[in-house]
Specification:
3-stranded antiparallel β-sheet, about 10% strand, mainly alpha, Arylsulfatase, C-terminal domain, elongated, 7 helices, 3 strands
Length: about 220
Amino acid sequence: MVADKGKRSKVEEEAPYHIDGELVLSIEKLQEIQDEIEKVNEEASDKVLEIEQKYNEIRRPIYRRRNEIIQSIPDFWLTAFLSHPVISDLVTEEDQKILKYLVSLDVEDFKDVKSGYSITFNIANGISHEKEGGKRPLVEESFFSWFNETQPKNLAEGFSDEVAEMLKEDLWPNPLKYFNNEIDEEDFDGEEEDEQKGTEHDDEDESGDEDGEGDDN
């Protein structure tokens, strides 16, 4: 009787040595277990999203109350922006004139958390700037340029996403920390040092490869 090659497992086809049927069966059972784990992980992810959505709704009225109080503090958002180690470098003098009249900053996750979030700036003259997380407008000389999606694509892709993430993850959760200038700059310096070390390591690897090629010759 000739075995059906179409029914052979991947392990049987790729292995350079003979594998007995018992081992193949064990591997197939292991794959079934892995599939079961993946199913549980997917269910867990869905549950986590449900919890995030629930607490996003609970936080909304608290954030509104916070915005009401912030409006009574002169130059609150301007001070907070200028105290952020990274964002402050993006704020020009013209931007400061706008941020001085920033009434409220609002970050809101979409109901389907996986689809992203929006960031809204409400200026005192009634102008509202809104940005949805995940899109990639490009920035030039002004902080607010990253809201403009019609600019030419002449800057590093993903830069606007980094700005949005800093607003959402750093500034928005506790702006009072930045207003009071209570930030730990070592955290930001550590991230920059890690990036620099990674770059230096890559350069060393490339240099080592070139030297190795020279030795062979």
